[in-house]
Structure formats: C-alpha cells, structure tokens
Amino acid sequence: MTTQAQSRAQPYRRIVRARPWLARLTLIVVSVVILTNLVAALLVAGYQIYYDGLIFPGVSVWGVDLSGMTPQEAAQALSGRFNYPQTITITFRDGANIWPVSAAALGVQFDVARTVQAAYEVGRHPQVITSLRQQAAAWRSGVMISPVIVYDQRAAEQVLGQIAAAINRPARDATVSISNLQATATPGQIGRQVDMAATLAALGEQISRLQSGEVNVVVIETEPQIMSAEHTAETINAILSADLEVYIENPYAGDPGPWIASREALARMIVVDRVDVGGGKADYAVRLDNAQLDALLQPLAPQLAREAINARFDFDEASGQITPISPSQNARVLNIPASIQQINQMVVSGSHRVPLVFNITPPAVPDTATAEELGIRELISSATTYFAGSSQERRANIQTAASRFHGLVIAPGQEFSFNEYLGDVSVESGFEQALIIYNGRTITGVGGGVCQVSTTAFQAAFYAGFPILERWPHAYWVAYYDAGEGKGMDATVYAPLVDLRFVNDLQSYLLIETETDLRNLTVTFRFYSTSDGRTVQKDGPYITNRVPHGPDLYEENPELPPGTPPKKVDFAVDGFDATVYRTVYRDGQVLYQDTFFSQYMPWQAVYQVPPGEIPPGAARVGGP
User: Fold this and answer.
1) Is residue 185 within 8 Å of 175, Cβ to Cβ?
2) How far is Cα 254 from Cα 256, in angstroms, rounded to an integer?
C-alpha cells in the first residue's frame, strides 16, 4: 500500500516543482504582449499626432498624391493639376449640325475645397476602429478620391435653350399659290421641338464620365396635317389650262349660249377648301366660288326658262286619228344649285365644257299622244265668219292670227284665253298695219283684223255649249259681222285688258282647227272632242234702243291739196243694243242659260278736206 501511495504522490510533486517556471513564463508573455501593445499604441498615437492636420499617406486625387499635405497644400496642388471644366468639350449634335460647348460653359466646375475635404476625411471616421482601418488601407494600397464636380444645370439649360432656338420650328401645312395663271405648291414643313428634359438627362450622363463626348439632341418631330399640295396645284393648273364653256345640252330653238368664262375669270373664282380626311390628316379640295357662279347663272335663269308646250295636231275625220303638226316641248327651269355643283365636279376632273342642269317637266300633251288617249273623236262645233271687202293687210292679219290657234289642244277643265294663245301682236311677230277702230275713229294700226278671228272663236265656243267666262262686244258695230250669225255675236279683244275666255267643261280634250280661205274670204274654227250629248239653242238677236248717228264731221288734212273734194274716211252707223240668249241642253235637260248683251254706239261719218275748206256750218271733229 505504501508503494501505491508513493506512486500516486510522485506526479503531484513534479507538478509542484514546475509551477514557478510556468508562472515566470506567463509573466514574460504577458509582459511582452503588454509592451508590444503599448509600443503599438505609442506608435499609433504618434502616427495620429504626426498626421494631425495632414492628409494621411496613400491618399490621392486622380494621380495627385496628397500624402502628408495640409489641406491648403493639397488645394494648391490640385488647383494647378485639375482643369477638366475648361479642357473637356461636350458636343451637341442634331444630324449634321453640331454645337461644341465647354464643360465650364455648361455649369460644370471642379470644387477644390470639397475634394480636399474628402481627401482629408479619409482615416478620420467618428469610429476609431474604422478610422484605423481606413488609415491602414491607405498606407498599404492607397485610396484614390474622385474629384468633386459641381454641375449647375441652369447654365446647361440656358445653353441648350440657345441650341433649341436654332432647331425648333413649327409644323407648317403645304400651301398653294396662283400667279400669272399658274399654281405653285410649297411643301409642308415638319415641326421640330427639342425635348429639353431628355437632352439634359443625356448631358448629365456624359458629364459624369468626366471626358469629352457627344450628346445627341433629342428632338420630337411632328408632321403637318397636309404635307404636300402638289395634287392641288395640278388640279388648279388643269382648271386654268383653258377657258370654261357652259352650254345647253339639248337646246330649244332660239336658245342663247354658250357662255364662256375666261382663264382670268376662272383664276378669280378658284377656292381652295381645307377638308379633314381623318387620322389627324387634312387635304385641300379645289372648287370654283359658288357665289360668283351664282352671280353668273342668276341672270340666265329668266332667259332660259321655258313653259311646257303641248303638241298641236290635225284631226282626220275619215280615220278618226290625229297627226302632230308641231312638236311638244318640255317645261324647263334652270337649276342653279345643281348647275354649280356640276360645274365644280367637272372642272376639277379636267372638263372645260359643262352642260347646265335643268328641271324638266313634260307637257300634258306630248306629240306621241293619240286621239283615243285625248278623247278626240268627232266635230262638236264649228263657226265661219266673212271678211269680204277687207284690205290685203287685214286679210294677212286674219290669216296670221287664225294660224296661232290651229292644232291647239285644251285639256278638260282648262280655261281658254284668246290673248294667251294669240301672243304678241306686232310687226316683228308677223302682223301688218291695217285699219282698226280706236277711240271712235277708224285709224291705221298693227293687227287690224284680229277681232275677226276672236269673233269666229267666240261663235264656235257659243255653239259648242262651253261656259263663256269673258266676252266683250265692239263699241261700234262693224259690218263685217252682219253676215253669218248677225248682230250681237261679235267679240273684240285688246290685250291685256280685253280678252275672250271660255272653259272646256267636257271630260275629254278639245282640239281646235282653224282655216283661212283667202279665195272665199272666210275664216273658220272647228272644235273636235267627244260630245257629251249637249245641244245649243240660240234666241235672237233682239235689237233695241236704236240711236241715229249724228251729222257728218269734217276735219282738215294738211296733206290734201287745195280744192280736193271732201274725202270720206269713216262711215255713219246708227247705234243700238243687241241681245242674244243661249240655252244649253244635255239629254233634254237644261244645262245652263246665259245672255249676251251688246251695246253699240252711234258713229258719225267723217270727211277730210284741205285746210280752210270745211263747209260753212259743218260740224268739226273734236270741236263745235
């Protein structure tokens, strides 16, 4: 047991003997560590003290070593070495146009003080450990500080504004002008506007590179609504290439025209309208000025207006058919708005002959009408008067007047006016000078003999049983009308106050035929239609209130040589009243009754004598 105890005590004794040396070794190590840290601390402290107010070693700005420099020394060193704003050029480009500008002019400046401050602050962090790490990093591998650049964008905006003034332009539509009858087109202009924000952003990126370079000016382009007016100029030149002729496509006899608008007149009428074609685009439309065209056409409208004219016919009693003897004519009214529209449509397509546009209304009776369609089947009435003893001129006038009614058709219910169909009574229209009764005297006037025709028409209407709307007797009885129907059956006319009017009250058309027999000196009216069974009974004439004519009258005629026997120029006729009654029957019943009253004034004989040769006591014309 003692041996085992001793064995266990031996290591313990060895440990006890080793403890003094371990303590000494530990003390030495601790002392070395403490001493080392103290030395290091002293060195760090000395380092800090030494570089107090100085830039730590290893700090540089773009190759300029600032180690150990005071801020003032560093500022001086940098001021002479860093001239970026003056030497760097930023070139603005817009296509082939460039504007070189120095960085300094764009508001770029090198801030020396702030750059030096940044260099000085390396290793001087508020946290000691961080500061020591920065100092160590600068000492080992160096620290390069980027220069502090100050960029005043207001200067750049001012420079870019000047560049934009040279670039900016508004969008401008194409135009067309006329000079010396020639149209010329000016192309449109694309609008250009500098995008200031986008360009300044690109400039900022270039400045950040701290080197020369180009900046593309950002330009927003806007197309005009009308880029080209070449087609407009071509249209105008086509219009002005020749005079414009306006004409009537299907003229009537005697129509005027054509009408010519010269190239110079057309140039004054040209109107160019702007029209929207959608999609933000527009175009030009060429036309002639509506107001000027209207001013040209308005005076033509009355000249070109035509009334509808029914065809005229001959009736063949043997066959019961009618044959046209004069064509029908459509009614025609100039349609001014439609004509203006057609002119504008055709001139812009290159046409220089443009027909006018008319509103056409067909006549009631075309020349294609048949007797069956018109209800013309038989002779329903006729009248003949005699003009033996008439002068050659009066005979010619009777024939001319009667021809104006030959072949005439009157519609059912239509009013017949003698003056309407007789028309103008003048030498120009075919009438001759002949004797007429005017203001109680027989004088020479145009159209003598027309009343022979109106009297004949009245008598035919009388026996046709038509209602007579207007009939005037002569103021003085005329011997021509004694033959045939006798007194009270005449009818005088004098446009526009005195007329002969009646109504065709049948259910079918009335066809009037006239015939002047210059051999037997008669004029005849024949009425053809379809009888409705009416018959006419004439009662009279009854002559009353006779008034004897007065004594012969004399008047001086300076054209008669002295001693010429009295020349009888008017014949005496007694005055009287004549009354004729008419009763119209249909199917044995009285349709209507009417009375025709005529009052004829007495008429004195008139003699013409040379001046101063009126018989003593004789009555003078127009005097005592």
Assistant:
1) yes
2) 6
